[in-house]
Design goal:
Elements: H1 3-28, H2 33-60
C-alpha cells in the first residue's frame, strides 16, 4: 500500500462527496424542470465515481476481495 496514493484517493472522494451534497441541495430546492434532469444525472454520476474510488481505496489497502489479489 502506498500511503500517498491512498491519501490522494481519499481527498478525491471527499471532494466528490462535497459535490454530491451541493448537487442534492439543488435537487431538493425549488422545482425547476430545466435543472431536474441534469441534476439527477449529476447525482448518479457522482455516486458512481464515489463508489469507484471506494473500490480503489479498498484495492490500495489490500482488501481481501481486491481484483488484484490473484483470484
Amino acid at each position: 500500500m502506498n500511503a500517498q496514493h491512498l491519501d490522494i484517493l481519499k481527498m478525491a472522494r471527499d471532494r466528490l462527496v462535497d459535490d454530491r451534497r451541493a448537487t442534492a441541495k439543488v435537487l431538493a430546492g425549488a422545482f425547476e424542470p430545466a435543472k431536474l434532469l441534469k441534476t439527477r444525472r449529476a447525482i448518479i454520476e457522482l455516486q458512481s465515481m464515489i463508489e469507484a474510488i471506494d473500490r480503489a481505496i479498498d484495492d490500495e489497502q489490500g482488501a481481501a476481495d481486491s481484483v488484484y489479489d490473484g483470484k
